[in-house]
Amino acid sequence: MNVILAIKQYISKMIEEAGPGMKVLLMDKETTSIVSMVYAQSEILQKEVYLFERIDSSGREAMKHLKCICFLRPIRENVELLAQELRMPKYGLYYIYFSSVISKQEVKVLAEADDQEVVREVQEFYGDYVAVNPHLFTLNIIGCGPGLGWKTDLLTRTVQGLTSVLLSLKKCPMIRYQNSSEMARRLAENVRQMINKEAALFEFRKTDVAPVLLVLDRRADAVTPLLNQWTYQAMVHELLGIHNNRINLSNVPGISKDLQEVVLSAEHDEFYANNLYMNFGEIGTNIKELMDEFQKKSKGQAKVESIADMKAFVENYPQFRKMSGTVAKHVTVVGELSRLVAKLSLLEVSETEQELVCQGDHSACLQKIRSLIGNEKVQHTDVLRLVMLYALRYESHSNNDVSGLVEALRKRGVSDKHRSMVHAVLEYGGKKTRGTDLFRDGDPVAITKRFLKGLKGVENVYTQHQPLLNTVLDQLLKGKLKESAYPYLGTSQLRDRPQDIVVFMIGGTTYEESFAVHHINRSNPGVRVVLGGTTVHNFKSFLEEISQPVHGQTPSHMTTRTVHW
Amino acid sequence: MAGVAEIREGFLCPICMKDLGTVSQLQDHFEEEHSSEDKDVLQQLRGLFDKAKKRILGDKEGGDSTDAGETRKGDNSKPSGGIPGFDPSVWEPQDDGVTRSHTDMFRSIRDERIDRYVVETNKLLIRLDKLVVNDGVFDHKKRKAYEKSVVNWIPDNQVPKCPTCGRSFTLTKRRHHCRLCGGIMCDRCSQFLTNSYARKLTDPAFQFEGENGFLKRSDSNSSLNSIASPEGEVHVRTCQECRKLLERRDQLVEQRNTKPTIVLLYEKMRSCISDCDVILEQYIPMVESLSIGESSYSFQDAQRYRLKLVKLYEAVDQLSKRIMVLGFEDDKTPAAKQIILQKAIRSYASTFMQENMMGLQALPTIEQYTNLQEKRKIEIQQRIAYERQVTIEAQEREKRIEESHHKDVPIKSSNTSPTKAVVDRERSDSQKVSGWKPQVEPKFVNSSSDPMIQQINIIQGYIKQAKQVQKWDEVEMLEQNLKELQKEYMNQQRQNWS
After folding, report:
1. What residues contact residue B323 under an 8 Å CB cut-off, 6+ apart?
2. Nearest Cβ partner of B351 from A4, A46, A134?
3. Given 3-state DSSP classes, what are the helix, strand and coil percentages for chain A, each rounded to the nearest 5?
């Protein structure tokens, strides 16, 4: 149940099937992301793949001495482009792999285009998702549909992505879904239909305990994507933004040219792999260690006196260069993070966020938010987060002062568009839609816990929050997840505690949740959870996600509503 | 030699060479230390070469499993639990994902179409051959009759419009026949196949030097007569369909028969690289063994291998450099993608060299090597002395505890073979393991005078020789024999005991 490995195996199998010789990899926009997430270019170069091309790029030249490996999504556009390509082939031989199920009709179209007999293989390799970490995948879709329904094409894409995860991991699961979400039910049913339709593909050796696919909806927990994060991966995504393992540093003051865009890949960067889930403070210490180590080696470099020294240095060279690369990169990234933390008073903001979510004193929270709105250092988006969190948290509190806060935002100069988000988030994940008791106000156990926490003091005020997913998975693993809230699709039910679980979050998951799943995997031997989402959110992308449902409405309507507040 | 006095005898652990003194101690030791390796013990006893072979195989497996192996390796190399962030260390390796092939269906659809092309093209070629061979017939009327005999011309009245451009035929817009399929088209839609190109198509031995096999139409108004022989070149009028078919075939033949320079160079480079891989597999264990002072491999062999490797690396370097600059001549530069390709190949080669050449352990010099050997000898002797001391103490302890065991402690009985072994080792470490070998057997036998043992030793000698000349298949066969012999021998011994 390692999605990175699954994709890697597919790709290396493709390359293997093409045999020795010079090769070119022909991809579309999406498969390019899929491949680039698991393989570094240098790594794939060692398999004799020397060129990477996009099927939709026009500037490709004929090179008949190359074998062409095509890895494409089975969409009509690609099939048409490929048929064109085959009529006038630019490369010697073609090995075609589609990332999901392709229709017989489309195969026929391609076969009829292949007059020159250049095609050697036509296969389906189910790598139709972007693997981020061994237990995390995404489909890079932001905004699943207007209102509470699916956009048809996005539903199709999601079903393809999700079934290909199941096929690549060889799992034929029992399906459970979040009852409060119509979208979750539809997705679950569509996946079930696909499994039934392609039953031959899903015939695996039965395991003792059937795997479970759990389909959730982001709406049940709109809080998690609103919070500031303090573990390395999540924090980088929140403050700098990670897109297909790349982060853009061009806005960093005084950045050197070669560091304007850096790649952070746990597969190829040991330091990153070791620190993904570390707290910000711990990373500082680790960076220092790394630098000391580097310094030691650098000194060795200065003292190259004898030939023996030189030899030793050259022998160390590849490692040395690699290391210096990672050092410079992480020093820059962490430096930028701490600059932002100080400049934007993120510690204060985060403390208030956590208090809002995890403790419950309304008036104290309100006061803090007001004072932060008055704080010049705090940026607009961060006060917006706070107000949005407040709106969700005290939606039905008798003294709720959302309108007062929105007015304060207006005075501060927060744009109309951003202010409308406060309402949008209530619409998206408010009490009415989420259907679960996110803050567990009614749960006496939770209240006691909260009270005790308040007495004992917490270990780390910035990381008190636990995403809802944690609770759901915990209950699922203990076999205590309520059937009424998360029903099975179909009649069969799991009697034992599940071991292999694929969780899919419609509306996008977060790195905080990924960290939670990572923790569950580590602390429950025998349990393997893979988490996926239509995307992996930070606050910015989540704003886009929740502004989608409102899109259907006219702008004027939106303004009147804002004025009304 | 002082060493001779230090006879290695008694109950030596076959794996760590520790002298345990008594049967029960050996057993205890074995259970404690090596129980996990139990199954491997037999193989371990079988001598150094076996070990080496296993190593080679092991290496190969590591290399073969490509990147699946790599990632797994990557995961395993993390100390378990030590590094957070990589959980799959606790997850077992996984199968490849599901795949489904449409290739057969694709082929059947394509072949149906292709067959039609092939039949059609072949027909055209036969006709073309006839036309070309008899191009001596220049008389207009005779020629026409001859052409009509090659293929049936479609009657004029059946075709009112040019099927290619769709315009009606008139007095000025006349019908023309394709000499290959007999079809009708207008003048503008006609194609003219030069005779030399036609010869090339029909006769593979024919040398063709023109750029294009079809005459270029100068303009739309050129009439038949003006084209009759523009450059004095004889030609055949064809339709567009026939032209396509002929050109398609020509391309296929062309592609099959020619290899561009880059491919030739590249193939050479690849073969050098795979040669390197083969030699490296043997060279690395050699260097490792030599540089700790063992003499299981010959120093000269290693030197020879090293020389070979260096030469191959140079070849790879040269070839990849040549590939990189290919096409850069006389102000000409190759196409953009071609440059990227060539650079990528060069960087592939340099990565290969970096990974293997940089890490290529240098051999110790002869003097260093001799020193190493000396040092190792002394170390071994020290260990022997120490273990002997321990053994004596242990034996005394055991003597006191349990008298009954003493009757089968075979210290004296196992005298001969271990002595010989140590002497061997003193002379040359290359027999180290096989030399040790008899020592594991004192439990069963008291001398190597046993014909069975002799036979085993002989076969082991053969294996060593075969290894030196690198006849791996023979080695394998011999090893099979050895295994059988040893099994038989064990059985015999067991019977003797009971």
Report:
1. B262, B265, B266, B269, B342, B345, B346
2. A46
3. 55, 15, 35
Q: Is A482 helix (H, G, I), strand (E, B) or coil?
A: coil
Cβ–Cβ under 8 Å, residues A157 and A166: no
Q: Tell me, what's the pLDDT at A431?
A: 82
The Cα A370–Cα A367 span in angstroms is 5
Same domain, A256 and A339: yes
Query: What does A346-403 look like in DSSP terms, one character per residue?
Result: HHHHHHHHHHHHHS--HHHHHHHHHHHHT-TTS-HHHHHHHHHHHHHHTTT-TT--HH
Are both B234 and B305 inside the same structural domain?
Answer: no
CB A166 within 8 A of CB A213: yes
Considering the domain boundaries, does residue A564 fall inside one?
no
Q: Does A278 touch chain B (CB under 8 A)?
A: yes
Percent of chain B with pLDDT over 70: 62
- Is residue A51 within 8 A of residue B341, CB to CB? The reply is yes
Q: Please give the residue range of the domain that contains residue B298.
A: 259-358
Whether residue A116 is found in the same domain as residue A20: yes
- Which A residues in the span 64-83 are in contact with B, Cβ-Cβ below 8 Å? 64-66
Which of B237, B257, B277 is the C-terminal boundary of a domain?
B257
- Rounded to whole angstroms, what are the CA distances from A441 to A219, A358, A360, A394, A450? 18, 11, 9, 11, 10
Backbone CA torsion sign across B46, B48, B53, B58:
positive
Q: Is the pTM of this model over 0.90?
A: no
Q: How far, in Å, CA of B197 to CA of B210, rounded?
A: 8
Quote the CA–CA distance of A35 and A33 in Å, as a whole number: 5
ipTM over 0.90: no
Task: Please check whether residues B223 and B310 belong to one and the same domain.
Answer: no
B192-227 pLDDT per residue, tens? 888 778 877 777 666 666 556 676 654 444 444 434
What distance in Å separates the CA atoms of residue B253 and residue B471, rounded to the nearest whole number?
42
B459: three-class secondary structure by DSSP:
helix
Do A22 and B66 make contact, defined as CB atoms within 8 angstroms?
no
Residues A242 and A206 in one domain: no
Q: How many domains does chain A have?
A: 3
pLDDT tens digits, A41-94? 888 998 999 999 999 988 788 888 899 999 999 999 999 999 999 998 999 999
Q: In angstroms, rounded to a whole number, what is the distance separating the alpha carbons of residues B456 and B484? A: 10
For chain B, the C-alpha Rg in angstroms (whole number) is: 40
Residue A271 CA from chain centroid, whole number: 20
Query: How close does chain A come to B335, measured CA to CA in Å?
Result: 8
For residue B149, the Cα-to-chain-centroid distance in whole angstroms is 57
